[in-house]
Amino acid sequence: MKIGILGTGNIGKTLALKLAAAGHDVKAANSRGPDTIDPSVLANGARAVTAADAVKDVDAVILTMPLASLRDVAPLISPLPAETVVIDTSNYYPHRDGTIEAIEAGEAESVWASRLLGRPIAKAWNCIGTSSFASKGQPAGSPGRIALPVSADRDADRKVAMALVEDTGFDAFDAGSLAASWRQQPGAPAYCTDLTLNELPAALAAAERHRLPKRRELTLAIMAERFGGIVTNADSDYRVRLARAIYM
């Protein structure tokens, strides 16, 4: 499959490495140009290109950037052919993204993103920590393999997104429509808790929408106090234990 990735941070890097290793034709881009992409992102065969090139002649585009930055790429995404699958990995963090009134009022984050981009999208890879994503993928059928929810409104988008999640080393679970994707947002029991396919459905069902923002902010406050605001200093096991203690 031909895949374009917009964003080469921690999640984007892991996506480029895993999907290229799985045999996909991967192009990776960031907002600063191909010359600024770390060579480690390209170690498994992904190619560094401009953002405009990354979305050209591809089967799927993966957006891996802060939620508010989707505004910057909307002009590239909106005109894409209807059959191109667009997958959103982002999450809403007000301290970083600014206040988005529609989300504050209860709109699911990826519903807001879909409206902004002017097209259907899928939501995947948003609820696993960067360390877990990079290090805990396993072959299909492995005991204890982590499962990740995938939400979409179109069957074709869901099918492609789920297949790509599997290719990155995780069990894919059909989590329903974009409107229901709030169940995989920060603060929910399924968010960064590294659950198996047997455990994930109950966690999604247990989510209480009104509790998510408070739990999200509590986790950020604890991480900032413990790690001086640099959350990437936390190892994956600590982050999972903290998320399970607060969200579940």
Question: Which properties best describe this structure?
Answer:
alpha/beta; Rossmann fold; eight-stranded mixed sheet; 11 helices; 13% strand; globular
Quick take:
The protein is an alpha/beta fold.
Structure commentary:
This protein has an 8-stranded mixed β-sheet. With 248 residues, the chain is α/β, with parallel strands linked by helices. The relative contact order is 0.12. It is built from 11 helices and 8 strands. The radius of gyration is 17 Å and the shape is globular.
Proportion of strand residues: 5-15%
Structural classification: alpha/beta
Total of domains = 1
The radius of gyration over CA amounts to: 17 Å
Main-sheet strand order equals 3-2-1-4-5-6-7-8
Estimate the helix proportion, in percent: 25-40%
The number of helical runs is 11
Counted beta strands: 8
Layout: helices, strands, pairs:
Elements: E1 2-6, H1 10-21, E2 25-29, E3 47-48, H2 51-54, E4 60-63, H3 70-77, E5 85-88, H4 94-97, H5 101-104, H6 109-117, E6 122-123, H7 130-135, E7 147-152, H8 155-167, E8 171-174, H9 200-206, H10 212-227, H11 236-247
Parallel strand pairs: 1-2, 1-4, 2-3, 4-5, 5-6, 7-8
Antiparallel strand pairs: 6-7
